[in-house]
Structures are given as structure tokens and as C-alpha cells.
Amino acid sequence: MVRAWIALAFIAVAGADDAHCSGTDGLDDPPAVSMLQTEMRVDRSSSKVKKGTRHMTKEHTKKHKATASDIGIWGAVALALLASAGFASSTLKRGEPSSLAKYVAEFIGTFMLIFSVGCNVLVGDKTWGVTSIACTLMVSIYALGGISGANFNPAVSIALGLAKKLPWVDVSIYICVQLAAGILAGLSYAVLLGDTFNLKPAEGFSLFEAGLAELLYTFMLTFVVLNTAASKQHGGKDQFYGLAIGFTVVAGGYGAGSISGGCFNPAVALGIDSSSMAMGFGNCFVYWIFEIVGCAIAALCFRECRPGDFEESASITFAGKLLSEFLGTYMLVLTVGLNVLNESKAGVFSIASALMCMIFALGSVSGAHFNPAVTMAIACAGRDIISMSEACLYICVQVLGGISAAFTYALMMHGKTVPLAPKIGAGEALAGEFLFTFLLSYVVLCVATVKDSPLTQYFGLAIGATVIAGGYAIGSLSGGSLNPAVSAGLAVSDFSMNGGPLEHFFTYSAVELMGGMVAAGIFHVTHEHEYSKANFKGGEGGIEGEVAKALAS
């Protein structure tokens, strides 16, 4: 144990020594750039967003290097954090030789995540940088999840502590190691690339707006972790946890990243802020507050959605199912609005990722419909999976979640809303909405409600991919809503705040619901065996029960 802690301490000292050959005095703040969607700036004279090679004015042509003193100071802080973690771990009497392996795994995973953030912001691809970071997180989770649980994020560790999934002693040690890794990763990319960037809201946004973005997507990230990797239903049993957790970064990074930079992780915030201390320091603490609040809300919602994780005799309540539908629809519509308003180049991919991640998290709670058309399809397909009265309540909650999310993104975007209207002609738009809502609903019926599902692990990926299919295919015709809750959120917020048309909500929703009902009719034909006496469900558990049974098998 001592030798490994010495090894980690050596990394901290080496990072400080590197300062003598790389540090220079800091410069003024660079032009505002999103940390996860780099190369973006706003031309105020034309009000157009320019994306591409970073345009720097003459006063910003020099690189913003970390100073020698900054590297020395933060190297010492990292060393102190590692020493604290080492001391705390030495007091444990567990008799577990693998305890130190957990802390080393947390260090490696967190270091690589934050080093990837720095490289992608400074020299990475302007479109796929967020995906690169998400993949770094995903592969590290799959590589090290069996060692430490692959937290790599103090907010995740705190959420696990609040949910009684991780002892608080381990939480404290993990946090020390993660923060030290964040500091050293920030210093490392600053030294390697001879450049750094500051932690601050994007130009035109306040700390509150950036903090709200951090809160919401830190909530999403930690909530997905709790449900897919730590719940009794899925923890240690299923394989989709890494995909679901990693791609919450795709969901949040492309939309909210243009507001806050998209940290969703106190170690990321500290790593960035400490490496750019000469340009200003302290925003990381504001980010921390919002991120910790987000993870605390996630733990509370996890308790409501999965009471059986806290009491052996407890089971999922209908109120928990309704909360599940609200949360999933809320995060989906929020991601839609932020990506559209921030003109994300990978908006459809981000929206599909949000849907996929929340389906993986909540499929075994409520069935993860998040769409009135899907709920209508399941109700019309019969088999007593969901009653019509329950379906009506699902739809009401979904619409409420969509409208709430729309007003949230309007608040974050200074009152801007997304109009719901055909892009070319009404007939073409409505036909596109009908056909791809049909596809989405039909895929849900085929992979998530059948007795012998063809996808026991990656049903969420299949359903989310239909959004990619429809979004790119008909987005230029109709906007690619494919969901009456999305249509409601867009139309109601635009009508209320900017006087936009409301009538398109009714036409869009009508064809979307019709698409769901037609999907149910086709399902009757293609899956006739589902209606045989042997396969008839008889009301035992609903779609969430079928997802759970498929996973168990």
C-alpha cells in the first residue's frame, strides 16, 4: 500500500518539477469558448454563431501558459490530497489487499478523463470533442468499474454515499484522489500543450445560468449512475452501464456545454480552474455548489423511483413510475431545446443520447416511455401491459415534463424559445412526423415489450437510434419532434414567451399519436404469437416488468 501511495505522490512532485521548464506569466482572459464545444464565438455585429478554426484577435494570439508558481502550488495541493487519502486509507482495518487498487483506479480514470477534456478543448476536433470525452469516460468505466466502481467524479461518489451504496470513508478518500488527479491532469495538459483555458460561463451567460446547466446535467449523470450501476436491479448484472453513463456527457456536453463549458464534475472544474489560475481562479467553487446540489437531487429521486433499494419489502409505486416518466421526458426536452438554441453541430446525436441514457436508467421502473405516442402504442397493443387510465396519467405527466423543460431552457437562454412549425410544407412535415413516430413506437414495442426480446441489454440503444434516424431524415422538414411531449414543450413555451403559433402543436400531436396507434396495429400482425394464451401477460408487471424479465434472462 505504501509503495503505491508513494508512486502517486511521485506523479504530483513530477508535475511540479515540470514547471521549471514550461511556465510563463499569465495573460488576460482568452475569447469566450465553450470548454467542450471549442472553436465557437459570437459575432455581435451579425448575431451569427461562427464555428471553425478559432478566430483570435491580435491581443490574444499568445498562448496562455500556466506559470511555474501555479504549477508548484497546485502540485503541492495535489500531493497533500493524496497524502490525506493515504492517511485515511491506512486507518481502515479491512484486511482487503484490493483497497489501494480502488484508489489507484480512481486516480487513473479521473486523470485520463480530465486530460482528455484539456486536449479536446485546446487541440481537438471542434465537432467530435465532446464525443471523445464521453468515450474516454465510457471505456475507463468498463476497464475499471470492477476495481473501484469507476466513479471518477466527486459528485458521483457523494451521490453513492447519499444512496448508501458507498461507505462515507471511501467517499472521502475517493474525493481526495479524484481532486488530486484533476489538478495533475490540468497541469499536465497545460505543460504538454503550452496552453490552457479558464473556467467561466460562455460569453453572455451568468454564473447562475452556467450553474443551472451544471446542476441539471450533473443530476442526469449521477442519476444514471445510481440506476444503471448501483441499483439492485442492474448493479453488477448488466453491461450497458458504461454506455449509459458515458453518453450522458454527449447529452449534456453539446447543449449545456455552450453555456457552462459542460464540466458536470467537481474534479474537472478544479482541474481546469487550477491550471489557469493566472487568468482568474474561484469559479470552480460556484460550479461545485450546483454540481453537489444536482447529485443530492439525484439521490432523492433515486430513492423515490427505487424504494426497494432502501427497504427489502418495498416495491416500485405508481407515483414512482410517474416521477420516472416526468424526469425522463424533462431531460429529453431540455436537451432538445439547448441543442437547437445553441446551434449544436451534433444536436440530433446529443438528443438521442439523452433518450438512450434515461431509458437505460428508468426502463425497469416505468418502462421509460417519455413519449405520449409510445404510451398510446403500448396501450393499444394490448396484453394488459398498461391500462388506458394509467396511460392517460403517463401522458399528462409526460406533457408536464416537456413543458417544464421548455420553460427551463428558455430561462437559461434569456427567453429564447424553439418554434414548432414546418420547415418547408405542412404536408411533408406531418408525413415525416407520422412515419418516424411510427418507427420509434414500433421499435419500442418490438424490443422492450415482447416476452423474448431480441435485445436483452441494448434496447435503449435501439430506441435512441431511431431518433438519429428520424432527426437527420426529416429534421429539415418538420424539426423532428416525433413526440407530442416535445411538441407541447416547444409550442407552449414559444407561444407564452414570444407569441409563436400554437396550432401546430395540435396537428403535430395528432399525427404523432396516430403513428403510435398504427405501430400497435402493425405489431398485432407481425407479433401474433405475443397474443397466444401462453404468452399473454395478464397484467403482471407492465413494460417495466418485461424489461426487467428480459434483463434477468
Notable traits:
mainly alpha; disordered N terminus; globular; 1% strand; Glycerol uptake facilitator protein; two-stranded antiparallel ribbon; 553 residues; 2 domains; single chain
Topology of this protein?
Elements: H1 2-17, E1 40-43, E2 48-51, H2 68-90, H3 99-123, H4 129-148, H5 154-162, H6 168-193, H7 207-230, H8 241-246, H9 248-255, H10 257-260, H11 266-275, H12 283-305, H13 318-341, H14 347-362, H15 372-380, H16 388-412, H17 426-448, H18 459-478, H19 484-498, H20 503-526, H21 542-552
Antiparallel strand pairs: 1-2
Helix pairs in contact: 1-2, 1-6, 2-6, 3-4, 3-6, 3-11, 4-9, 5-6, 5-7, 5-12, 6-11, 7-9, 7-12, 7-14, 9-13, 9-14, 11-12, 13-14, 13-16, 13-19, 14-18, 15-16, 15-17, 15-20, 16-19, 17-18, 17-20, 19-20
Report on the architecture of this protein:
The protein is globular, with a radius of gyration of 24 Å. It has about 550 residues and is mostly helical. Residues about 1-60 and about 535-540 have low confidence and may be disordered. The two termini are about 40 Å apart. A hairpin with a 4-residue loop joins strand 1 and strand 2 (about 50). It has helices at about 1-15, 70-90, 100-125, 130-150, 155-160, 170-195, 205-230, 240-245, 250-255, 255-260, 265-275, 285-305, 320-340, 345-360, 370-380, 390-410, 425-450, 460-480, 485-500, 505-525, 540-550; strands spanning about 40-45, 50. It has 21 helices and two strands. A two-stranded antiparallel ribbon has the order 1-2. The protein has two domains: about 1-40 and about 65-315, Up-down Bundle (Glycerol uptake facilitator protein), CATH 1.20.1080; about 320-553, Glycerol uptake facilitator protein (Up-down Bundle), CATH 1.20.1080.10. The longest helix has 26 residues, at about 170-195.
